[in-house]
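[job 0412] stage=complex_fold ligand=guanosine-5'-triphosphate status=START
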Amino acid sequence: MKLGITGLPSSGKSTVFEALTQSISDTGHKGEDRIGAIKVPDSRVDVLSDMYNPRKTIYAQVEYFLPGMPGHQKENKPDRNLLTRVRDCDALIHVVRNFGGYGFENPEPCKDVLTLDQELIIADLVVVEKRLERLELDKKRGKPIEQEEISLLTQCLKHLEDEIPLRKFPKIASAHLLKGYAFLSAKPMLVLFNNEDDDDLMPPDKGDDLENSMVIKGKLEQELVQMSDEDAKEFLAEFNITASAMARVIKRSYQLLGLISFFTVGEDEVRAWTIKGETQALDAAEVIHSDIKKGFIRAEAISYTDLTEAGAYKEARKKGTVRLEGKTYKVQDGDIINFRFNV
Ligand SMILES: Nc1nc2c(ncn2[C@@H]2O[C@H](COP(=O)(O)OP(=O)(O)OP(=O)(O)O)[C@@H](O)[C@H]2O)c(=O)[nH]1
Ligand SMILES: [Mg+2]
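[job 0412] stage=complex_fold status=DONE, emitting structure tokens
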């Protein structure tokens, strides 16, 4: 599962990538693809780790992808090429310039949000129109065609012609028959307003229909990455920012991908495992090992809250909050699971 970073030229994409992944480049990396796997901060894992004192503690991860852009982009438009490069990402992070300064026009963040959306929409329109033409042709030639696919694509065409991104239509965005097209405007998207150092506010003209957005200060966050802990502390106080701005972006990224965590615990290892929401116990078992799925007997599960309230697993057992669940149990975010299996 990976998130692609997009945005208009000079919006702060590289800056944000570096702040998120805590990787600074001295060469500029302009032309190169950059990819970074980042652990997802999770206080529950910290607490469980304190409880079990394991040899290893493993957090969930998300991956960020920043396509390399050789050459200089002058136009205030996202490069078409850049957009096709994020087609195989599962979600998008849209970095929006909300800072000014030397060499920059005044920021127009809300306009930029629309501009990028329009580019995503145009890219999808091209795909839909081509495909529909193709299917019409096949139909004329008497080839068997999937009527449902035509119907779905026709709906896409209408929405895109109305300039509405497909992510606004959950049924279409999640339609199995459309998966292969990897529509850009259907991907979940988090908008990051990249603010001036002393500006904490959302752009005032931000409409209500932008459900996934946050304010960040990319430049400060990136500088923070390069500092010693002591300097960082002072710096944070001075600029009135919380150390967790990037942590919040990472957590939001995880949610944006529709991912949840369950945990396994023990003296050897406390570990967060990543699954899609609504995953059943049997499939969650497979994430750990195919043998556990094959030999699945039961899942011994307890919620994070129940465990921490009881203080220890033994106590929770006495209180009866440890449950025995079967194959079809829908694993909940924060469940601590012990799979019983037999191979
Ligand atoms: N004041 C301010 N400047 C920023 C911020 N984020 C980035 N910048 C500056 O804006 C310029 C562009 O930032 P980059 O991160 O290179 O932007 P980009 O989107 O990767 O740019 P291209 O790859 O050229 O399209 C750099 O000079 C950054 O230092 C911010 O939050 N505040
Ligand atoms: Mg860049």
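DSSP finds 13 helices and twelve strands in the chain.
[job 0412] exit 0
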